Amino acid sequence: MHAWPASEVPALPGKGRDLQIHDSATQGTITLAPGPVARLYVCGITPYDATHIGHAATYNAFDLVQRVWLDNKRQVHYVQNVTDVDDPLLERALRDGHDWTELAERETALFREDMTALRMLPPQHYIGAVEAIPGIVPLVERLRDAGAAYELDGDVYFSVESDPHFGGVSHLDAQAMRLLSAERGGDPDRPGKKNPLDPMLWMAAREGEPSWDGASLGRGRPGWHIECVAIALEHLGMGFDIQGGGSDLAFPHHEMGASHAQALTGEFPMAKAYVHAGMVALHGEKMSKSKGNLVFVSALRRAGVDPAAIRLALLSHHYRANWEWTDEVLAEAVARLERWRAAVSRPDGVPADALVEEVREALARDLDAPAALAAVDRWVERQLASDETDETAPGLVSRTVDALLGVAL
Q1: What is the pTM of this model?
Q2: Is 81 part of a structural domain of the chain?
Q3: 158-198, pLDDT tens digit by residue?
Q4: Would you say residue 288 has pLDDT above 90?
Q5: Which residue of 47, 171, 271, 280 has the fewest CB atoms within a 10 Å radius of its CB?
Q6: How confident is the model over 88-146, as pLDDT tens digits?
Q7: C-alpha of 381 from chain center
Q8: Environment class of 275 (CB within 10 Å of its CB; exposed 0-12, middle 13-18, buried 19+)
Q9: DSSP H helical segments within 146-238, as ranges?
Q10: Distance separating alpha carbons of residues 84 and 187, to the nearest angstrom
Q11: Which CATH number does the domain housing residue 376 bear?
Q12: Are residues 248 and 333 in the same domain?
């Protein structure tokens, strides 16, 4: 599966800083100092509907991670999946009378268009669940043969008790885990399971649903968590730098994925940092496909909203914060974009060397994008009121905003 085209990232004078990031597993801020190649895995979409602002906020956060690393003169090995077969996708296709593969392909294509418009840097490996099945089956067999998984009426479940570190990503108690498991695709009440929290690794073929050859597992399709584990291990290996996604993925998805990988390899941890973006609300409720309270990126673009303004709206909130999308948020972003473009359109102006370092410092400090925007705002205010004549300043500010914030002026 192909990703989307990459926008050019301008080179800035000097060098950026090591990234300090909040890690859900340690529940504190850690400093990541990868080697020459930084490794990032971000969980992708289930393509049964268009990209909404909540998605865009999450991918914007990890786009900033890439930009900080690139500015720090590192290469970035970025991997993202697409869950192109799963219950929500099949249910939506059945409801609307569409072929599930066509639905997945159409919505994945729209996602690519949205990411391109927002200037999100693409992954080097963009892998669908279906194309990953040949690599998933042997992992499930290994877990079963090692006693870390068991069969139940043809389905194969992972035993969470096989990983001594289970619970170390989300730090939830058993009751909270059970409630979230039921809400987020699990089946804690199924009779016969060894532990209510045990997640499915391989679902035996159901009548009327797609299935694939699973060798000794029989025909079926993979569970949600093992999909990402197989892709991450193949392309990044254990101990990669960041496992990323929305905060709703901390449990069960990232918790279970970590345990799968740790049980498979005997190594710990799967990722050096588990990084989670906050949720975006609309009209007081978390924006989600199940509730239908969505603001689509593609709809905003069709309405004539500049993608740079959408990006500034996302950047105006700290990535870990839960916030609400409103008309006022977008209007403020549109006005900010106009001011910034007016400021850099002058042929000369206020020196900007200090601004570059301010933006770098803000982003290295747990991706504090609002602080970075505030720094640019201060330069813009001085620029619009000044008669200074540094001919390099407007261009340097444009390149800084582009390279570090992904906003084209």
Answers
A1: 0.96
A2: yes
A3: 999 999 999 999 999 999 999 999 999 999 999 999 999 99
A4: no
A5: 171
A6: 999 999 999 999 999 999 999 999 999 999 999 999 999 999 999 999 999 999 999 99
A7: 33
A8: buried
A9: 174-183, 224-235
A10: 21
A11: 1.20.120.640
A12: no
Please give the Cα distance from 167 to 252 (Å, whole number): 10
Same domain for 120 and 35 = yes
- The kind and range of the H/E element at 128 are strand 125-128
- C-alpha to C-alpha distance for 256 and 194, rounded to whole angstroms: 15
243 forms beta bridges with 41, 274
Are residues 240 and 383 both part of a single domain? no
**Which residue matches tokens 């990503």?**
169
The tokens for 161 are 């008790």
Do 113 and 191 sit in the same domain of this protein? Answer: yes
In-domain check, residue 307: no
DSSP 8-class letter at 252: I
- The DSSP result for 345-366, as a single string, is TSSSBS--HHHHHHHHHHHHBT
Sign of CA dihedral 184, 189, 195, 199: negative
For tokens 């390899």, the residue is 265
78 lies in some domain: yes
Q: What is the model's pLDDT at position 366? A: 98
Same domain for 190 and 73: yes
List the structure tokens of 2.
């192909």
Closest CA to 251 of 166, 320, 190: 166
Residues 6+ apart with CB under 8 A from 23: 29, 30, 272, 273, 274, 275
Do 204 and 337 lie in one domain? The reply is no
The structural domain count of the chain equals: 2
Asked if 239 and 270 touch (Cβ cutoff 8 Å), the reply is yes
Residues 257 and 364 in one domain: no
Would you give the DSSP letter of residue 389?
-
